[in-house]
Structures are given as structure tokens and as C-alpha cells.
Structure of tRNA(His) guanylyltransferase:
Amino acid sequence: MANSRFGYVRQAELDDRLLPNTFLVIRLDGKGFTKFSQAHGFTKPNDIKALNLMNAAAIQVLESDLGRGYIGSKSEKKSEKGKQKSSTGIVLAYGQSDEFSFAFGRNCQAYNRRSRIIQYATFQEFQDYFKWRQVDAHINNLYNTTFWALVQQGKRTTQEAHSDLKGTFSKDKHSILFDRFQINYNNELEIFKKGSILIWSSLLEKLCTTQKSEAADPTSDNNLKASTPPSESSTPLPRSTTDPPTTGEKTSQPNSDDVVNSVCVVHQDLVKDQWWTTGPGAQLSE
């Protein structure tokens, strides 16, 4: 900013530098999403192509210089492009409905940590944030699935469907779906029920390596603990030539020399502690 007699106004600015050694989370919400989905004829209650498109956009964010942790990292060399620096970039992302959350590691120094953003000082709070978002995804999807079943198959108006569901609990919605429309909610695609988790392939590979090592050692205490394989709780999605990679697939060509660590999209249970203790999330506490 050029110096001028009006420069005094900057004295009113507050320091917006974020606390060091905290997890940083940015959540992007859709604006005017209802009108947007109507204008583009989205399938109700879930449009798989729109969700895949949103995942593809989020993948681009993770694979950017910001996502890989290059921005603000003076020690990173161009020759190492393609690697993802631990805890300096985006370590985890989660999307559902019309929103996506991006989590930065404790050591992130992008833009000198100047931002307005959600900060979590403890790993427990960090976990609880993503558990909260996934619980929200489940509640909303169960409601929407039941609502649109009433409208599309039950021939109820939208106002009548809202009235039918007023005051109902989860078990009531499951009953409506199964008894009236022969829909078993448990058979719905995992991406609809759990949302999308974007995670670096190296975390999944480390998990597989650890599990193989423990399996080879029958005396290992960890061998007695249940652990979730990276591919579990995942559902393959319909693919087209324009669809982004889906569950458990890497987003880059395996022969690419430029990409060492790629992004994987999985649909797993974040609410149970297992994902954070013996699964991929256990390595995010650093």
C-alpha cells in the first residue's frame, strides 16, 4: 500500500495472524445451492455426477502448491516438486452436500499464517470437527432420502412431505423408507451417507505397511487391535470418461514422474475412534 495521509486508517486493523502449532480448517459452503441444483436439473436426493465434480475440484486444491505445502516453505526446492510436505499443507479434506472442509497441519506457514479461519489447538477438537461434519451428512442425507421418496414415489407434495417428517426420529425415517418404499437405507452408496474424505496416498500406504508388519509379528500387541484397511467402508462409483477417480483410487497416472504423493478419495467412518487411532487419521496428530 502506498504511503499517503490516509494511511492512518491501518491503525484500526487487528492482527489476523493465526496461532502457531494449531490445526487450521477452512470450510467452503455453497451459495444459492438450491437454485443452482434446480437450474441444472440435479437428481434428488443425491446427484452422483455433481458430487464427483465437487471431489474433482477439491482434488485440484490439494494438488496445488498451497495444498502440497510449497507456499511459505522456504526450504522446499523445485527439484522436489510433487512431494507433499508433512503438516505444512493440506493434510485432510472432507466434503458432503454443498460443502468442503480443508484442514492444514500444525506446521503450515502459508502466507505467514495470516488469515481468518477456524483454529483447533488439540487433536481431539480436530477429530470432533470432522466427526461433526460427517454426523451432519448422515442426518441430512437420511432426511433428504426419505423426503424425496415421499415426493417421488409417495406422490406427496413437498409441503406434505415436510409435514410427514416433522418430529420424526432416525428410526421413523428408516421405517418409512423400508415399509412404504422397500428402501433399505443401509444399502445406499457410502458417498451419500458418509461424504468424501480426501487424503494423501502416502498415509494409506504407511497404514498398509504397518498392518503388514504387525501381521507378520504374532507377538505384536497391535496385532490384537482391529484396524480398518484403506479400502474398507468404500463403494465403487459409476465412472465415465469425465468422472474423477473414485473410492480408494489415486488421482494421478502411476507412471507420472512429477507426482510422488497423490490424493485418494475414500468414504469411511470418521465418527468412530478407530479411524483416528489405528486408521489413516492416526498419523494426522503430528
Notes: The first strand starts at residue 23 and ends at 29. The first helix runs from residue 33 to 39. The CA atoms of residues 204 and 230 lie 6 Å apart. Strands lie at 23-29, 90-96, 99-104, 118-120, 196-200, 263-266.
